[in-house]
Amino acid sequence: MPIGKLREKVLFGIGKARGSIHRYTLWRWVIGTAFTVGVALLPLLDILRFDLWSGRHMWLGEQVGLVEAAKAFAFPFLAVNILIVLASRFIGRYLCGFMCPYGSLARLAEWFRWREGTGKSRTLRFCSMVGVSLLLTAITFSFWIDWRVFVEGSVLALSLASASIVLGTIVLAWSIDRLGLHFCHDWCPSGVYFAILGPKTSNGVEFAHPETCIECDVCDKACPIDLLPRAMEFEDEEHERPASGLYPDGMTNHGLCIRCGDCVVACEAMTSRFDTEIPLRMGFLPPEDQRNQAGVESELSSKSE
Fold first, then answer.
1. What domains can you pick out in the chain, each with its CATH number?
2. For 117-146, b where at least 16 C-beta lie within 10 A, e where not — what string?
3. pTM of the model as a whole
């Protein structure tokens, strides 16, 4: 199974040999950080907050009632979900690969694991995981509870607020460190939702140049979802990932792919030194009737032999 030590070892070796941050990693952190900061500013700037402690519900800087806040929130919430549906339907699960804070933090945990060697590095990893988990828990908390609870709240309110932050931090830190991308592979309900929305997309991973493939299979080992990147167009039992976790049978390869780009990163590392076209690419795909035609013909030819 590629998730875990084998996958991490492959990507760590590639990163060490390259000696620089890959563009996908840079994009992932820039987009993920911008998204997280944007979400965090909503309650901090009183753009939106539901205060279950004191009833100070806020919308666009004004204190409103709970029903008014819910009504005001309903339209942008619906608009965002429509955009998510359209994005998942036509370009695939880039939200999973490049925007999800959990996925980025799971990768950070992988990065720390393969750089551990001393007690100091393990302490740094522990503190980093707890720190970022506390930050995300605090952002979630601020949407529902005014931080003044820690100054003006009763002993009961203060205890409940503190317990919720501590519990949320522990659960998230444990999940990131112990489950990692296994959660994305099996248990993420949003991932199932996105996979159902986008069984066929106009954007994704393509085996564009099978003639330059060196058959190293590193792309297969790098995939966190257990897919075969060079066989994305084949929807049969031989090339489909078995159902697991919350994912039912019948999920297509394009629907399951989270567009993280790990397979392309691995492919680039293994074939770029040959001064040929990179076999795998990620981006807009050609029309479906032309998509991966060379790869299909190559597969059928190898089977006939």
1. 5-191 (no CATH), 202-304 (3.30.70)
2. eeeeeeeebeebbbebbbbbbebbbbeebb
3. 0.86
